[in-house]
Amino acid sequence: MSSFRLTLLRHGATVAPKGMLIGHTDLPLSALGEQQMASRNDHFVRFPPSSIASSDLGRCAGFAQQLAEKTGLNCHINHNLREMCFGELDGLAKPQWSEQQQAAWALWSHNPESYTGAGIEGWASFSARVNAACRLWLQAVHGDHRVLITHGGVAKALLLDWLGLPAARHSQFWLAHAGMITLYWDDEYPPVLQGIDNEVLQGE
């Protein structure tokens, strides 16, 4: 039997304008985002990681690599842990969206599992991609505290799969920038959600 703490930490705020979808668009953290992530360092002093993984996008990988250097660990970087690709909406400021694009986003938000328009990555393939990548990482490493630096959508997809919930419930697991989810993992049982911590400095 293998049991361990699993922490999912979302990246901090980026330089993207408010409301912009940046799935595969690779934008850096803002000064606020850097401050948000730095505020999580105390958690990892209290609970040192035994393994660290991250999306390959800079808004996640930068902090993951810093944490790995501080703790003397290798950092597992995997492009399959990227956020969902939002197709033609990815990296496009909301004021530039056409009426059709606005309608597409409304349909996706209502039921991401069945909507496949506007070039948005299908939920089934997205969920399968990130769950497979996370599972391979967890199976390959050891230790009692495994940390994934991740994206909001990836965290939702993982939790929905682990807890057996449909994609339409994705808004149930809203995660703030630098928000943190902690689970207890035991190979013989479903993961236990211990908490969602969104108590971190947020911008206006």
Automatic annotation (TrEMBL):
It holds the Pfam family His_Phos_1. One of its GO terms (molecular function) is phosphatase activity. GO terms for cellular component: cytoplasm. InterPro entries: His_Pase_superF_clade-1, His_PPase_superfam, PGM_Phosphatase. It comes from the Bacteria. CDD domains: HP_PGM_like. Signal peptide: none annotated. This is Alpha-ribazole phosphatase/probable phosphoglycerate mutase. It comes from Iodobacter fluviatilis.
